[in-house]
Amino acid sequence: METNELLKKVRRIEIKTRGLSKHIFSGEYHSAFKGRGMSFSEVRTYHYGDDVRNIDWNVTARTGEPHVKIFEEERELTVMLLVDVSRSTFFGTQQQFKQEMATEICAVLAFSAIQNNDKVGLLLFSDQTELFILPRKGRQHILRIIRELISFTPKGQSTNIGHALRYFNNLVKKRSICFLISDFLTDIPYAEALRVVGRKHDMIGVQLYDPIEVHLPVAGLLYARDAESGQTQWLDTQSEGVRRQWHQWFQQQRQQCQQIFRKASSDILSIRTNESYVRALIQFFQKRVGHGA
To answer: What are the residues whose beta carbons fall under 8 Å from the beta carbon of 88, sequence distance 6 or more?
Structure first.
């Protein structure tokens, strides 16, 4: 991609998603992702009703008067975007490729995070780790993330979510809010890796899918090629049985994915490429607030 074309694309995405994050998501994001830890703030004299477990015995002994430690919520968070860039994400039959929607979702989340003074990092993966960008703050850092999402050419073709999760868990030690964005169309197990990561990090899955992956259109014989494996086959879309099997396969994949996240005590939301990710994200944020997340 030419440099001028890339910069124009980055600018278009910035204008669209920065406005969304500023006017729509700022309040929802702040409420949904409150600081997870408590940091020491100050010491003051003991007041009736204070928790005796917070008494600072050193200061109490030195002054001869009871003092307690005061803690405040840690506001600064780290947001990690783990994004699937395997071949199956470069697919779309209607408004967007899955990869294009992933880019916009990442941009909205990233701009929302920096408005909240949080750090944002990026990990791109296929069947290998493709790129890792350390969490940082600032507009220029976010624009770099968007540029990589738009222009990056992956080496791998298939999807290995477990590998990406293990790489992330070994590298990022501080507790993070982690958005794992993928179509989750893989036969390689990742349940155990997700469970391990979910114990330390706040893990949220974002499953993107195209309408044709749910329901085959009635369009006669179609020559289909699997983007990741390269396997090809003819599909008789006139056959109700073929269309039913196709739909059942996708439903099984989605249900299996949801079950894996549920067992890992992690959240997941599904977004279709021809629907509004804005509405889906707002509903997700509001749900977390309602559950006291």
So the answer is: 98, 159, 183, 185, 227, 228
- Which tens digit of pLDDT belongs to each residue from 203-248? 999 999 999 888 888 888 887 777 777 788 888 888 898 899 989 9
If asked whether residues 52 and 154 sit together in one domain, one would say no
CA atoms of 45 and 59, how far apart (whole Å): 10
Q: What token pair was written down for 86?
A: 């395997």
Q: Rounded to whole angstroms, what are the CA distances from 39 to 55, 69, 72, 174?
A: 15, 10, 5, 14
- Quick: pLDDT tens for 108-137: 999 988 888 889 999 999 999 999 999 999
SS3 content of the chain, % helix, strand, coil (to 5): 45, 25, 30
Same domain, 52 and 193: no
Q: Are residues 282 and 139 in the same domain?
A: yes
Q: Which residue has the tokens 């770099």?
A: 144
Grouping H, G, I as helix, E, B as strand and the rest as coil, residue 93 is coil
Compute φ and ψ for 134, nearest 5 degrees: -60, 145
Give yes or no for residue 5 having a pLDDT over 60: yes
Q: How far apart are CA 210 and CA 94, in angstroms?
A: 8
Domain extent for 62: 38-73
240 and 265 share a domain?
yes
139-151 and 98-115 helices cross at what angle (nearest 10)? 170
